Amino acid sequence: MPVSRRMRVGVAAFVVVGLAVAVVVADPGPAHQVPTQLFGSSGGNVNDMSKRFCCSGTLGALVTDGGNQYILSNNHVLGRAGQAGSGEDVSQPGLIDNGCRVATVVADFTAAAALGSSNVDAAIAAVRPGLMSGAGEILDLGVPSSVVEAPEVGMGVTKSGRTTGTTQGVISSINTDVNVQYQSGCGQGKKFVVGYTDQVVVTSSSFSAGGDSGSLIVTNDTAHNPVALLYAGSSTTTIGNPIGEVLTKLGARIGSTLSFNVSGASSLTSAQGSTLTSDEMTRGRRAKEAHAARLMADPAVFGVGVGEDPNEPGRAALVVYVAHGRGRGLARRFDGVATRIVETDPITAFGWNERLGGSCK
């Protein structure tokens, strides 16, 4: 999808959580598109190229199995959407930020969770010694906590990514079923749709853009607990896999337990909580489970999740992500749960394609 190259003016965001105050300075994307050993930066598989395009995303974070260190990102960034072979080179920055030429090779592709059957878009690549931050430092955010946090409606989050840099947002829905569009080749080839369940959604036009795929979404406080792995979105939404499921599915692929427990990582836990009680979340989940399949049988509906009713704060809502102009016929309530309609365009895997001649696509 087209992506603007215009930079946003950096601003400071202040988030108060209990007595913890996090100050995150928004950093425009270009600072994430140059050579660096820090994560949250441009990178990808060096073979992710066609006759007309090269493709890349974001090297999101550092994980370990206790003995080896790996770059964490998406299957469609490191694993060429399931087509990569073991040992393929991963560079930083990615092809798109080096004139479609290979830059410094920093890792070797190791494993990916299968698209379409694993419910995550995730992959890892073994780090070559000394070429990426051994502490797992992420641009602008530092080293994330080793403690994984479950996503909650209303949770403040931040991420550091290749295209939009460091941005902040709020989780608008969880337990979201969503259909995501992919393309079999870099900038060309057959398009296909993968269905996911129980995903994390941030509704914002500025939280991410194409090329931010692979970014680690963390809590927007001093703890910076890992929450989700960014992999898809639209002009109004960002989609992430819950990070606990990502680690579990990738760990199963390599037969080992993966974690963020690298040298330098703290064990801080976020003080944030959901804006919904457990009873309200139960109401919302029941409505979603009863109606999501029927709603998503309509091609104009891209996703259905559980969020908060903007007209009645503290009350659950069934959040329906639907094509522009197609939300008018939806029921305003399902089983007594209000409907919140978010009109958007199709949700796509958030990589970035660059023409070999240099223009964007």
How would you sum up this structure, described in words?
- By secondary structure, the chain is mostly beta strands.
- It is built from 3 helices and 21 strands.
- A hairpin with a 7-residue loop joins β11 (165-183) and β12.
- It is globular, with a radius of gyration of 19 Å.
- The N and C termini lie close together (6 Å).
Largest sheet: 8 strands, antiparallel
Which structural class matches the secondary elements?
Answer: mainly beta
Mean pLDDT: 89
Helix content: under 10%
Helical run tally: 3
Low-confidence stretches: 1-26, 357-361
Kindly state the number of beta strands: 21
Mind sketching the topology for me?
Blueprint: E1 12-17, E2 20-25, E3 41-45, E4 53-59, E5 61-64, E6 69-73, H1 75-78, E7 89-92, E8 104-112, E9 123-127, E10 156-161, E11 165-183, E12 191-203, E13 216-219, E14 226-233, E15 237-242, H2 243-254, H3 278-296, E16 301-308, E17 316-323, E18 333-334, E19 337-344, E20 348-349, E21 352-355
Parallel strand pairs: 17-19
Antiparallel strand pairs: 1-2, 3-4, 3-7, 4-21, 5-6, 6-9, 7-8, 8-9, 10-11, 10-13, 11-12, 11-16, 12-15, 13-14, 14-15, 14-20, 16-17, 18-19
List keywords for this structure.
eight-stranded antiparallel sheet, six-stranded antiparallel β-barrel, 39% strand, disordered C terminus
